[in-house]
Amino acid sequence: MRKNPVSTRAFGVLLAVLMLLSAAFVAPRAQTAKPLTKTELYAAFLQYEGLFIYDAAPLYTVRHSLDLLLAYEESFDRYAQLYQVPKSLVEVSVLRELFYYNLLDWGADIFVSAYYETALLSEKRGTQEAFAQIEPLFFKQDASTGVAQIFVTTAYNNAIDVLNWAAETGVRPGGRVYDAANVQDRYDLWFALKDDPDFSIEVMTLIHLRNALLADPTQGFRAEDLSEDEIKWIFARFNTGTLDSDHTVDCYAYFLLFEQYNASEI
C-alpha cells in the first residue's frame, strides 16, 4: 500500500480524456459501456506508459504488471463471487500496487523476514531482552508485502484487523483470529501474504468489502448501486487518502477500464 505515492495524476486525467474522445468512457452502471478486449485494455494503459513517475526504481513494466494481474484471474473471480465484491475494484487496487512495486519494497521484505526469523529464535532461546536492544537497528517489524502489498499490523487496512473482522462477523466463517501481540501469529500471516498471491487477493477483497460496508452500512454492499463518489471513497479508504488524491483519481480511471474489460467476459 502506498500512503504517499509520487503523483501520477497526469496518467489518470489523460486516460480519461482518451476514453472520452473515443466515446468509450462512461460512468459505471449509468449506461452500458462498450466492452474492451484484452488487446484494447493493454493499449489503453500502454499508450501513456511514459507518464508514470515512480517513487523508486520499478521492478515491473506496465505490460509485465498487467501480465501478472491477469494471471490471477481465477482468484479474482472466485473471491468476487464468494464475497460479492466487484472484481474490478480488487483488480485495480492490486494493479496499482504492481505498478509501484520497487526495490524499496523488495528490500523491506528482507528486513522483515530477518526480524521474524530472529524474533522467533530469540523466544525459543529466551534472549528476547537482548534482541529488543538490537531490533530497532537492524530489522523492520512490518512492511507491505505480497502481490497486493498489504501490511500485517501497521496501516489502517492491515490484514489482522480485516481478517479478525471477517471471522468475528461471519463474513469468513471459521477464519483464523490473529493476535497482533503474538509474534508467531504475525509471522504466519505476513509470510502467507508474501508468498501466496491467492490469499493476498482474498484479503484485498475483504478490505474493499469492509470499506464498502463502512460507506453505507444500512444497505450492505450492492455493487450495482455504488455511485462514482462511493467507488472513489472505497479506493481512498484503502490508501487513507481523499476523493481527489492521485491514488483515488488513478484507481477510478483504471476501474472504468476494467469494468469494460470484465463486461466483455460476460
Characterize this entry briefly:
61% of the residues lie in helices and 0% in strands.
Write the layout of secondary structure elements.
Elements: H1 9-21, H2 38-46, H3 62-71, H4 73-83, H5 87-99, H6 103-125, H7 128-138, H8 159-169, H9 183-195, H10 197-215, H11 228-239, H12 246-263
Helix pairs in contact: 1-12, 3-5, 4-10, 5-10, 5-12, 6-7, 6-9, 8-10, 9-10, 10-11, 11-12
Poorly predicted spans: 3-31
Q: What amount of the residues lies in strands?
A: under 5%
| DSSP helix fraction | 55-70%
The class by helix and strand makeup works out as: mainly alpha
Annotation, overall tally of beta strands = 0
Number of helices: 12
Principal-axis shape: globular
- SSE arrangement, N to C: HHHHHHHHHHHH
What can be said about the biggest beta sheet? none
Average pLDDT, all residues: 80
When the domains are counted, the total is: 1
What does the radius of gyration come to? 19 Å
* N- and C-termini, Cα separation: 30 Å
Oligomeric state of the chains in view: single chain
How would you characterize the overall build of this protein?
It is a single chain. By secondary structure, this protein is mainly α. The protein has one domain (9-263). The protein contains twelve helices and no strands. Helix 1 (9-21) packs parallel to helix 12 (246-263) and helix 10 crosses helix 11. The two termini are 30 Å apart. The model is unreliable at 3-31 (pLDDT under 50).
